[in-house]
Amino acid sequence: MSGAQGQPGLPGLPGRAMLVLGLLIVLVDLRFNGFDIVSDPVGWVLAMVVLLGLARRHTGFAVAAASAIAGTFVSLCTVLSEPGTVLSVVEGVALTGVVFGTCTALIALALSPTDRRAADIIRWLDLGLTVLSLLAAGTAGDETVQVGGAAGLLVVIGVMAAIVTVVWFLVVVWRVELRPEPATALG
Predict the structure, then answer these.
(1) Is residue 180 part of a domain?
(2) pTM (2 decimals)?
(3) Which stretch of 35-39, 52-56, 63-67 has the lowest confidence by average pLDDT?
(4) Which of 163, 113, 158, 168 is nearest to 137 (CA)?
């Protein structure tokens, strides 16, 4: 993800920065008078381009790329229509696919044992939090649920854990160094 020659990215924007930027665009809504300044599909496309470029390195990146493609389509639907619970859930699952696939590839390709260990923890933590949020969304349906007391505290802890997990993932993606690609023999 270094953005070296032959690596995904844009001129002046290496792959890792492009992936982090794309995911930040997806995760953070920058609104001005109710208008989303940079739409989520832009972020999904940035992530998708990087992950498609890395897909030949490891199947985890291919899974992440497929998840980014799904996220792109879902976010386009939310731009064209009113976002609902189902679209939000599908977009959350797509983001988890990006995190899990990317972390799986990092476990195999990262130079640092610390980065490999972090990627392993992040992928399972993110998956667990997603499953818990899906269970919570399934019980709530489209209704607004008032949560207080101990249940409210659990919701706050869950949200904080999700934020920490995503920030940790973005930091690992930003700083990770991958093993160099093996040289291929020219026929």
Answers:
(1) no
(2) 0.83
(3) 35-39
(4) 158
